[in-house]
Amino acid sequence: MNLADLQTFRVVACDLNGQMRGKVVPGSYADKLSSGSVRLPFSALDVDLWGTDIVGSPLVFESGDADGMLFPTDRAPCPVPWLKTPSAIVPVTLSNEDRTPFAGDPRHALVRVLADYDARGWQVIAATEMEFTLVDDKGNAPRPPADPRNGVPLDGGEVLSVSQLDAFAAFFDDLYAGAAAMGIPAETATSEAGIGQFEITTRHGPALEAADNAWLFKSLVRGLARKHGMAATFMAKPYSDDSGNGMHVHFSVLDSEGNNVFDNGGPEGTDTMHHAVAGCLAAMPASSLIFAPFANSYDRLVDGAHAPTAAAWGYDNRTVAIRIPSGPNGARRIEHRTAGGDINPYLLLSAVLGAAMIGIKDELEPSEPIVGNAYDVDDLPRLAADWTAATDMFASDPLISRIFDPILIGNLVRCKRQEIEKFEQMPTSTHWRALLERV
Length: 439
What we know:
Elements: E1 8-14, E2 20-26, E3 39-41, H1 58-61, E4 67-72, E5 78-79, E6 88-95, H2 106-119, E7 123-135, H3 162-167, H4 169-182, E8 186-191, E9 197-202, E10 205-206, H5 207-227, E11 231-233, E12 247-254, H6 271-283, H7 288-291, H8 297-300, E13 313-315, E14 322-324, E15 334-336, H9 345-362, H10 387-396, H11 398-403, H12 406-424, H13 431-435
Parallel strand pairs: 1-6, 13-14
Antiparallel strand pairs: 1-2, 3-4, 4-6, 5-6, 7-9, 7-10, 7-11, 7-12, 8-9, 12-15, 14-15
Helix pairs in contact: 2-9, 4-5, 6-9, 10-12
């Protein structure tokens, strides 16, 4: 894609909530990108859900709201399939004046975590399962979308229904075409248990690419839904009495010779895998803010509702937070099942892979794997009970401080405390409007 041939293109970085922040620039700016002459205030990535500066942010009030330098990532520019006029997205990251990474940039946080794997000659391979819900948002509350075949609103969930997928075939045809154009390796589509709820899986690949794919995919889904006369949301709980949206992450680790360090030739996996599991379990309660970043997120975390609520693991067990799927031994991997669909993909992968590396470094040992229903086990460490508790735990936990830079921790905590205060001042019935297409 030749950016110079476009009327405009979009230069976008990822903020704390996973929203795209940046600029629309003319095609003539194509030659300026590599030099860092396109700039953005550091504070642009340290804003709340509504794009408002964080009160007390040192990026605004101590630095004078200084600018950082934008540099393209190694992700190629990609088209914007939901716009009528041809354009492109150029993913960028924010750097300091000396070209070192800005620690408050979520993508840099993941690069920082992956450096520990790189130092061992390892490569993390990851994939995502992303759920979203199609809705009609024209009223005072989200409603099921109309079936495109007859115009009648959907009246229930259709788990694994091919007929339901067929009903929205035009949307999914555009979604697959758009994903291919953007370089997103979308694979299977399934109809899920919720009304108008669907899931798309992506092909396994390098972890940083997986995070890029997830970030871009969320914008693609939302944009194309609007083209088809609907809204799409990754809210953790679009309807109080229906299934919530999750995002599962699968990952394995390859050594310098391409061998899976989790594979011991049998179903149980290596000691390295067990250490990684133990690290994920140890950091899980304090990582609740990453997995469940809004008050609505905690409506999904209910015992027995297909969303893990405690730090437990098991083999081929979908009631636990950390599942070791069955399958070929050479493909042994960890499935992290805790996060909602409303997460920031870079922070999610940072939390999961950072925790796994802590477990490997410290040679932590996991608890016994759960056999049967994990919701029936009473003495398991629990995720945070609510948004405020999650924010407080994240702010002070020693494992979190080993995963994330202090600048990012401080920025995220201030952001969430400001959002908590704002949501408390809003009628509960209006919260969905704030979240619908922002998460």
